[in-house]
Design brief:
The chain is α+β, with helices and mostly antiparallel strands and 227 residues long. The chain has seven helices and seven strands. The protein is 42% helix and 13% strand. The strands form two sheets. A five-stranded mixed beta sheet has the order 3-4-5-6-7, sandwiched between helices. A two-stranded antiparallel ribbon has the order 1-2. It starts with a strand and ends with a strand.
Amino acid sequence: MGDEGQLYVNEDVVPAYKNLLREADLILPNQFEAELLSGTKITSFSTLADAIAKLHTQHRIPHIIVTSVRFSESSTTLSVVGSTRRSDGTSRLFKIDIPSIDCYFSGTGDMFAALAVVRLREAVTKANLSTVKSWISPDDVESLDLPLTTAVEKVLASMHAVLQKTKTARDQALEGMGGPLGTMEKEKNSEKRMHLRKTKAAEVRLVRNLKDLREPDVVFQADALNI
């Protein structure tokens, strides 16, 4: 729907998204989208927990992953916060911090969603929950032992590895074309040329890094978010 305080769709479309929430088993909004869907201004992990609690109770969403969480523009870390609801609607919150990568990538939301579905199904199968409605773990399962937590750890491991390698390749490609201050940028329409070059160079290298998708090295561990 949007990001960083700006909608990508018309405002009158937002209620339609909200009406669909009760049909969802899993949602993956970014911080801005979580604000819109919950009606809660998110300025801290405490208010984020409030937003997730509302989504669990008011819309009965089983699984929630909020991406791109950052409360300061100067922060070099992004957080992902997730939860699987208990039978009474309460949250089981976990948080994973990852270093941000100073590069614009296109399609990362789709990549995250695709990996999340695959990894959640994998973790649910391992936990023998495949036949349980909405794949919800028993109430006595703590946040760090949830299939959702395991899934997100693997998703972030894959994404960070692929995006880091994409940035390295992007930097090398730009350098090979004369660098950000090369002769092409001195020509007419240089700003447009630069944008197109950077966009092309930053295309996510998925096929070249299949091993990171299939067998990610999990280095970012989840912490329980007790609020």
